[in-house]
Amino acid sequence: MNARAVVAGDTFELRYALRPRGGNDIVSNFDDVEPETLTLGDGTLAPMLEQWLIDLVPGERHVFLLDPWQAFGANQPDLVQVLPKTDLPAEMEFAVDQLVEFAMPNGQTLAGRILEIGDDAVKIDFNHPLADLSIEFEVEIVRIL
Question: Which of 47, 51, 56, 107 has the greatest number of beta carbons closer than 10 A?
Fold first, then answer.
């Protein structure tokens, strides 16, 4: 019997890795004991990445070579913001290149990378860390649940 392919809305077990093209893994769960379980469309993976999982069959390993526009997009200058320190949590400690997460009013979190720290303000880049990069997206659907 042929295994069916992934369709929108499926829940499945997945092993995956993301890395800049020719670079080291930024995230990978290939070495984890258990694969990650996710549902297409639940927001676990970026929609730009989810589309590559449609029609994959469990047990096959694929590497997709994505240009920036197919993955995390271009760096957007308006996502680099200078925030007054008074707007940030008082207990927050700052270091250049540190990734920080902010809770948004809608309950989502937004991650940013600290670029500069001034006396009264902090310059933060809210672009995705992989923006502007060509990406290797390696995936294996373990099984559809």
Answer: 56
The torsion defined by the Cα of 36, 40, 43 and 49, in degrees rounded to 10, comes to 90
Please give the single-letter amino acid code of residue 46.
Answer: A
Strand arrangement, sheet containing 99-103: 80-84, 121-125, 109-117, 99-103
At the second CATH level, the architecture of 11-72+132-144 is Roll (3.10)
| E strand segments, 5-108 | 11-20, 27-28, 36-39, 61-66, 80-84, 99-103
Report how far residue 80's alpha carbon sits from residue 90's, in angstroms, rounded to the nearest whole number: 21
CATH label, 77-125, candidates 3.90.1300.10, 2.40.30.170, 2.40.10.330, 3.40.50.1980: 2.40.10.330
- Condensed to tens digits (0 to 9), the pLDDT of residues 83-98 reads 998 887 777 788 899 8
Task: Name the amino acid, one letter, at 27.
Answer: V
Which helix (H) or strand (E) segment is 48 a member of?
Answer: helix 47-50
What digits encode the pLDDT tens for the residues 23-76?
Answer: 999 889 999 999 999 999 888 888 889 999 999 999 999 999 999 999 888 999
